[in-house]
C-alpha cells in the first residue's frame, strides 16, 4: 500500500483521481451525523451485537495513530454485515477479547465515492471475503466520508456504495473521518486501518491501495491460534 500525494479534497472530483494507488484528500472532518435531511437518527443498535459478557472494552490511550486504542464512543449509521436495513454500527461491537465471536482481524477503510483507488478496492473486496477472509475471521468496515459530488457522506451514500459493489461487509457514513484525525493535513485515500479485535488496538495504518494486506492476514492467523 503506497502513500498518496498531496492535494485538496474539496477542489477535486473523480475525473482528476486515477484508479491507481491513492486519491488525495484534505483531512478536515466535519461535525455531522451522516444522516440525510429526511432521515431519523433513532436507528437503535444492530451493529453486530455488543461484546461478550467476559469482555470489557480496553482503557488506555484512545486515538487514531499506530498503537492507540480505537475510541469506544465511535459509532456510525449504515449497514452492518449481511444486512440491508440501516442500523447503528458501534466500534465496540467488533471487540472479541476471547475469540468467541470469531472476529480475528478488523479492516477499517476510509473511502469516498469520487475516489478511483477506493472504487478499485471496493470492486475486489467481495472476492477477498468469499475466497478466504471470511473463513479466517477477517471483518471489513467501510466508512464513507464523501459522495461523488465531494459532499459529506450520508447513509444514502453508504447504501449506494454497498449496492454498487455488491458488498456484504459493513458500510457506513462517516463524514467526520473517524480514523483520520483532526489536523492531519492531506491524506491519500483509501486510508486503511487494521485493528486487533482482542484489544481494539491499531496495529497498521496505510494510505492508498495496493491490493495486498499482509499485516491484516498475519493478525488473523495469529488470533486464530494453532
How would you characterize the overall build of this protein?
The chain has 226 residues and is of the alpha+beta class. The chain has a single domain (43-224), classed as Glutaredoxin (3-Layer(aba) Sandwich). It has helices spanning 116-133, 155-164, 214-224, and strands at 23-27, 75-79, 87-90, 105-112, 138-146, 170-173, 185-189, 191-196, 201-207. The radius of gyration is 16 Å and the shape is globular. The model is unreliable at 1-20 and 30-48 (pLDDT under 50).
Please outline what is shown here.
The chain is α+β, with helices and mostly antiparallel strands and 226 residues long. It contains three helices and nine strands.
Enumerate how many helices there are, as a single number.
Answer: 3
Broad structural category: alpha+beta
* CA distance, first residue to last residue: 28 Å
Strand residue content: 15-25%
Please give the order of strands in the largest beta sheet.
3-2-6-5-4-8-9
The number of distinct structural domains comes to: 1
Note the run of SSEs as H and E: EEEEHEHEEEEH
Under CATH, the homologous superfamily reads Glutaredoxin
Give the overall pLDDT as a whole number: 83
Spans where pLDDT lies below 50 across 5 or more residues = 1-20, 30-48
CATH class descriptor name: Alpha Beta
Amino acid at each position: 500500500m503506497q502513500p498518496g500525494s498531496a492535494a485538496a479534497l474539496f477542489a477535486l472530483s473523480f475525473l482528476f483521481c486515477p484508479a491507481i494507488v491513492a486519491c488525495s484528500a484534505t483531512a478536515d472532518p466535519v461535525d455531522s451525523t451522516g444522516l440525510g435531511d429526511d432521515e431519523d437518527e433513532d436507528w437503535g443498535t444492530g451493529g453486530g451485537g455488543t461484546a461478550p459478557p467476559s469482555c470489557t472494552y480496553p482503557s488506555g490511550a484512545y486515538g487514531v495513530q499506530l498503537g492507540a486504542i480505537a475510541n469506544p464512543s465511535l459509532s456510525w449509521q449504515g449497514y452492518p454485515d449481511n444486512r440491508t436495513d440501516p442500523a447503528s454500527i458501534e466500534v465496540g461491537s467488533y471487540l472479541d477479547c476471547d475469540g468467541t465471536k470469531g472476529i480475528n482481524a478488523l479492516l477499517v477503510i476510509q473511502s469516498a465515492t469520487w475516489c478511483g483507488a477506493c472504487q478499485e478496492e471496493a470492486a475486489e473486496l467481495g472476492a477477498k471475503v468469499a475466497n478466504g477472509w471470511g473463513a479466517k475471521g477477517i471483518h471489513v468496515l467501510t466508512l464513507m466520508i464523501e459522495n461523488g459530488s465531494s459532499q459529506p457522506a450520508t447513509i444514502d451514500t453508504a447504501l449506494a456504495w454497498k449496492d454498487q459493489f455488491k458488498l456484504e461487509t459493513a458500510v457506513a457514513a462517516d463524514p467526520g473521518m473517524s480514523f483520520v484525525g483532526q489536523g492531519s493535513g492531506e491524506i491519500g485515500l483509501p486510508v486503511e486501518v487494521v485493528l486487533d479485535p482482542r484489544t481494539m488496538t491499531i496495529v497498521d495504518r496505510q494510505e492508498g491501495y495496493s491490493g495486498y494486506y499482509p499485516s491484516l492476514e498475519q493478525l488473523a492467523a495469529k488470533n486464530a491460534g494453532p
